[in-house]
Amino acid sequence: MSTPLLQARDLHVEFSSRGRRARAVDGVNLAVGEGEIVALVGESGCGKTTLARTLLGLERPTSGTVLYGGQPLTYTSKALKAYRREAQLVLQDPTGSLNPRHTVYEAVAEGPRIHGMANEEQVVAEALSRAGLRPPERFFLRYPHELSGGQRQRVVIAGALALNPRMLVADEPVASLDASVRGEILALLLKLREELGLSALVVTHDLGLAWNIADRVAVMYLGRIVESGPVEEVLKEPKHPYTQALLSVLPESPERVVLSGEPPDPTRIPGGCRFHARCQVLASGAAALAGVDSRCRSELLEVLPAVPEAQAACYYADTMAADEAVVR
Is the keyword Zinc assigned to this protein (predicted)? Predict the structure, then answer.
């Protein structure tokens, strides 16, 4: 991969929680290339949204670096304002994202006004048109309650497009929409990538969505990426037991994997593999047969690098891969 457009390098984000330090993001390397769509997937509470907010400069990392265009992010007001014109956030709840007292025109014009852009009406009209609201003038004076859920999400996307960004960070962009509308919004994001060369980081718990829209996928668990790679490789042949469990809920999955318990408290991340307490491979005895069960419980895994190839942070997967290589 050439110099990524957006990159996290050994990123850590911690918060105080009941006198303890919660490691919301606990060593993440992630890269999004020019014109690339990367899906960041995982259960609720795994750190996806915190990572996305940190990549946008809305949270400051405890340690590590966010790079944009190869340059470290600078946290002055002026630098962040310029950066946020380049990298825009699209939230999952369009109803909550839009002020009910503002018309569609005012909602989309807010960003261009903050950044002092000229030809405001033309900018708003072009953004609405690109977002699929045509003719745009028909929507100028409408209020959010007069729109469908899909139209409201298009207005939110238009508000981001009005600033001519190079990067979108979409946090569960279709989670609140009806199934019939989700495909339209996903098709819109793909169309924007094709027409404008936009890059996107799509945060989701839905691996089916990742399959339909992403070039690469990164699977996150308890503050760390545990598997990543090209979407077809990861989702067709997942190596990490956590990814396998997430995929098992899809309708076409031959076998359902039910994980025990909830993700551990991020103030008390377990030793060894952070997934071992819920791991179906360890519980079944397969890890013991492979001779890695003690490592799973006690030895810390290395943080995955930001590389385009498929990779997984799992002792059992490493052993299986080594055995396959010997057979070949």
Answer: no
Ordered structural domains, the chain, with CATH? 6-218 (3.40.50.300), 238-327 (no CATH)
**Number of alpha carbons in the 13 Å side-chain half-sphere of residue 320:** 17
How far from 257 is each of 33, 87, 231, 264, 265, CA to CA, in Å? 33, 37, 21, 18, 22
Q: Phi, psi (5° rounding) for residue 22?
A: -90, 125
pTM of the entire structure? 0.94
For residue 72, the cross-strand partners are: 67
pLDDT band at 327 (very low <50, low <70, confident <90, very high): low
Q: CB-based burial of residue 86 (10 Å sphere; 0-12 exposed, 13-18 middle, 19+ buried)?
A: middle
From the list 209, 217, 268, 213, the residue with the least C-alpha distance to 242 is 217
Q: Considering the chain, what percentage of its residues have pLDDT values greater than 90?
A: 81
β-strands 63-68, 216-221 pairing = unpaired
